[in-house]
Amino acid sequence: VQLQASGGGLVQAGGSLRLSCAASGRTFSNYAMGWFRQAPGKERELVATISSGGSTYYADSVKGRFTISRDNNKNTLYLQMSSLRPEDTAIYYCASSSKFTVNSQRYDYWGQGTQVTVSS
Q1: Dihedrals φ, ψ of 28, to 5°?
Q2: What is the pLDDT of residues 95-105, one digit of tens each?
């Protein structure tokens, strides 16, 4: 299984970015997917997750600003990020799980990460 995250970059506060995660190696539509992030000196945290059926969950810190979605025909996961803040700066990772869960330990495959930097 391979997960390839892309779409990160440098953006000013208040701006937007869309992350993508291309999946291969197993039936994408059967699995829950999540976006996580890790800022320097901080623990990895869940940003958002989406079930195989399209149910979603968001961390309070991104609710109303970020939208997770998936295109099962393209085997691709997305994270639309708007109203970005400097505290959103982190490496963002996509991950796959057989369960719709907020527990990062239940995610068994991880992408390589993409850097998001928000300047003030």
Answers
A1: -55, -45
A2: 999 999 999 99
Tens digits of per-residue pLDDT, 23-81?
998 899 999 999 999 999 999 999 999 999 999 999 999 999 999 999 999 999 999 99
**What is the DSSP secondary-structure string of 23-84?**
EESS-GGGSEEEEEEE-TTS--EEEEEE-TTS-EEE-TTTTTTEEEEEETTTTEEEEEE-S-
CA–CA dist 70, 73 (Å, integer): 9
Dist. CA 120–CA 86, nearest whole Å: 6
Mean pLDDT of 8-15: 98
Under a CB-based contact definition with an 8 Å cutoff, are residues 90 and 76 in contact?
no
Instruction: Report the alpha-carbon distance of residue 45 to residue 38 in Å, rounded.
Output: 6
Mapped onto helix, strand or coil, the DSSP state of residue 87 is helix
Residue given tokens 């998001």 in the structure block: 116
CB 28 within 8 A of CB 47: no
The token pair at 49 is 């997750």
